[in-house]
Input
Amino acid sequence: MKCRTVRKHVLLFISGEINKKNHRRIMNHIESCGECREYYKETQIAIDLLKDDMLQPSSHIRERILDTAKQRCVTQSNNNEGVIHTLLNRFTVQSVLAYSGIAVILLMAAVYISNPGLLHLHNSYEELVWEDNFMQDINEIDRDVDRFGKSDNVLAALSAYDEKSAVFTKKFVSIRKRIVELSISN
Amino acid sequence: MRGNMTDSKLIQLYLSGDDTAFETLYQRYERKLFSYIFRMLRNRDDAEEVFQKTWIKMIEKIGAYSEQGKFSSWLFNIAHNCTIDLIRKNKKINCNSSLDELEYKLGDVNGNPETAVLIKEKKQRLAMAVQNLPDEQKEVVLMRIYGELAFKEIAEVLDTSVNTVLGRMHYAVKRIKKEFGGILNEV
Output
């Protein structure tokens, strides 16, 4: 290590703000170079001499600061307790339920807004309900046909079946269309 | 026990209602901070005013203290700003300030009276040499010597680079050594 580099880093060396590797290199250099050793000693002495005169403020200043800190600490603790007390008083059972209801509605709205795909799922759920009704209707027609087959009024049974099947066909077309749309969007 | 706690831990305890944690923190920095402010202002009344203002500001702002930065840098930054404010306000850095101010602690020397006088004289000269440094160099020297801040922390307080801080310190020490000549070797 060169003398110039050692002198450049001597302040960091004295303050201990240098890594071990450089510390060792500077130390080795100082041991072997008389001029740098002198430079290091003078710097160290100057700093030590200055360091010797640590001063203190008057005791009343100290007391005033510690009092302020104590008051602030007490005020802060009281404020914290006050906030908790207010919150506990405000939240009665009724208000908790009301706030919970509002929170759920807001949450659902937020979920639907952030994820429009969920609306499709919601519609799919309606379709499942409709499907249940549809199966009930089919079974009913089936029973009607059996019933009318044993009577003379077969035409009436056929008419009722055509009317219902036309509605079903229309619904099937609608469902198929939406399934295709969903498959495209996914 | 408390003495081993980090500054951040002491602040946490204080914020949770333990005012004795603040006392520990105060004791840790009292002398460092006051020595720095006193040397900057060279007047005991002004130094005590700024010292008190610094701690009051620190207490007011402590809730906003971020643990990302070191507490010492944060505290010295407040002190530095308060000191500069007072200097600007009063414009009263009096170069002919009485040595009495500087002798505040220097007179307290034990041992042989003759040696004590010599040491006192040397220290007075050294203290005056520091006072006569350009402000930029002086604040670095004072933060390093009295505040015991690392050069990196001083750079944070002064919002400058470590190399600039090292450069200022280097020139300051060089100047002091030059002014004193062989006197340093006699100490």
